[in-house]
Amino acid sequence: MKLNSRIARILIERAIIVLFLGLSFAGHAAAQTYADNFESATIDPFWTQTQQYGTLSLSNEQAHSGSQSVKFTSSDGGQREMHLSHNFASPTKGDFSIYFYDVAPGQETLYEKLYLYNSNTTDSASIGTQDFDAHCYTVSLYNYNTNVQQGPNGTCGIYPQTSTTNVSRTSGWHRFEINVASGSVSFSIDGTAVFTAAGDYNFDSVDLGVSGPVWRPNTTAYFDEYNFTQLVSFNVCPLFDQTKAYKSGSTLPVKLQLCDVNGNDVSSSTIDVRAVSLIMVSTNAQANLADAGNANPDSNFRFDETLGDTGGYIFNLTYLLNSTAGTDPTVYSVTFQVK
């Protein structure tokens, strides 16, 4: 049984196709990363050190992995400020995490936190312990200009606050994580989400800190396995005429570049772009993704250094529309042009 030309023509004329890419026209991809397991002989110069009424040192007394962690030890005499901090060149989004060793659950100690800050907006995000809260971990999303604080409003402990979680402090290692995504900030303790807030946030500094007033007891804290993965926004800039009609059955080279928010080319052979599927919008049915001549193994776009200023991506694609007729289970394919 053959599909007659009139039916094929109608199917071609009515088919509306959308190509979904691994990076869409407003996608994101992970870029810069930094990890510190504190296994070196000295503290990495990535960090700026602050040691006011306290000291920072690499120690083998506790370690989540390897043989060392970074130790914060407070001393008497005044306001304690011990920090490992890093300033980014510009506000950034991404995933920040650290392992914290709680040495004194059930005791009022000092502020011991993973802390993010934006010097322009005065937004901050933090996760850790409060000096007055001996029983519960806290998370906070706060703006100093507006004095607006967001948090889980947990009922844990003696002095529940906006920042109080329902996670009790316990001795040992705990993983603190702050994920700054494209439209939200989420906080996790030991892999479990404890609070999420919607909004477009970014931060230009990160801090591992232990601080508190002179009247609080001295504290020892350990941090290990700091990890940061930056989230970079991309736009996809087509390098072909999307309004041009291609002859039915021909191969359409889908060429594109990755661009930043200002339209500058940021394409790189180290960033993969993947064609995922073809979808007929009129029926929301999946269509085959056919690669003409098998020029793109594994459905990956090929990086071409000759495109644009720094290169671009190309995928040789032949469009197919699969159909059946009546009770005949045979699948018929027709090629068509994209208008």
Biggest sheet descriptor: 15 strands, antiparallel
Average pLDDT number: 80
In CATH, the topology of the largest domain is named Jelly Rolls
Number of helices: 1
Low-confidence stretches: 1-30, 279-287, 325-330, 333-339
Beta strand %: over 45%
Number of strands: 25
Question: What structural class results from the helix and strand content?
Answer: mainly beta
Overall shape: elongated
Give the termini separation: 29 Å
Radius of gyration: 27 Å
Summarize it.
By secondary structure, this protein is mainly beta. Helices cover 3% and strands 52% of the residues.
Describe this structure in words.
The chain is mainly beta. The protein has 2 domains: 5-27 and 234-335, no CATH class; 29-233, Jelly Rolls (Sandwich). It contains 1 helix and 25 strands. It has one helix spanning 5-14; strands at residues 17-21, 28-36, 48-52, 54-59, 69-74, 80-102, 111-117, 123-129, 136-143, 148-150, 164-168, 172-180, 184-189, 192-198, 203-212, 220-233, 235-238, 252-259, 275-280, 285-287, 290-291, 302-304, 312-318, 320-325, 328-335. The strands form 4 sheets. The protein has a 15-stranded antiparallel beta sheet that branches. A hairpin with a 5-residue loop joins strand 7 and strand 8 (123-129). The longest helix is centred in the N-terminal third of the chain and has 10 residues, at 5-14. It is elongated and about 75 Å long. 29% of the residues are buried.
